[in-house]
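Subgroup meeting minutes
Present: P.N., E.W., G.H.
Scribe: E.W.

1. P.N. recapped why we're keeping a running log of single-chain structure predictions: easier to compare across weeks, and new members can see raw inputs and outputs side by side.
2. G.H. added today's entry (265 aa).
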Amino acid sequence: MKELIEQAWEHRELLDERATREAVLATVDALDRGEVRVAEADADGVWHVNQWVKKAILLYFPLQGMQTLEAGPMEYRDKIPLKRGLAERGIRVVPPAVARYGSYIAPGAVLMPSYVNIGAHVGSGTMVDTWATVGSCAQVGEGVHLSGGVGLGGVLEPVQAEPVIIEDHCFIGSRCIVVEGVRVGREAVLGAGTVLTASTKIIDVTGPEPVVHVGEVPPRSVVIPGSHTKRFPAGEYQVPCALIIGQRKESTDKKTTLNEALRLF
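Output recorded in log:
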C-alpha cells in the first residue's frame, strides 16, 4: 500500500487505476481499525510521522463523493462517513458526539459530546469530554482526560509536519489549546486555559533559574498559563507563555482531578 500511495502522490493520474484506489481505501480502513497510525513512538520514545499515511488521507478526499448522512433526526452532508460498529469496538459515544471514519477510538474510550477527526488516534481509557476537539491526525494516548472545550489542533499538510501528541495518562484542563505539533509528555497536567503553540515558551520556574522549553512539555510536568515580558519597538508588553510550576508526584493517582494536582503547589 505504501509504495502505491507514494507513487500516486507524485502522479495523481494513478488514482484512476483500481489498484491505487484500493490501496488508499485500505489504508484509511486500517487507520479506522488502528492497524496503522499517522505517528508512532519508537523504543526510545521518539515520535516519527508516517508521511505515507497522511498522503493516503489526502488522496482519500478526491475519491469520495458528497453524500447525505443521517444519524437519527440529524442530517449531514459530507464526503466521509461516521464511525460505525461502536458496540463491537467497546466504545461509549454520547450523543451528539461525532467520530469520523478513519479515526481510531480504542476500546474503553469515552466520547462525551465532542468531535474526533479523520486520522486521529484516541487510546484506551481516555475521556474526551464535552465540546473537546481532537483534530485530524492528533495522537492521544491511554488514560488521558481531555476536559471540556479542549482543542487539539489537526494537521494534514505539509505531510512531514508532526501532529499534536498527548502521551499516556495526561490531564488536559478545561479550554486548553494545543496546536502546531506540540507534544505533551506522559502524565503531564495542563491547567485550565493553557495555550501551547509551536512558538510558545514553556518556562520551568521551579529552580533558581528559568529553563525554557519550546514545542514540548516534559513528562509529569504541572503547567499553568502565564506571561513574560517582551520588548517591542513600541515598548515592553506581556505576551502569553506557559509555566511549569512543579512535577506530578508519584503518589498522585493517574486519574486525579486537575484541582488535586494543582493544590500540591
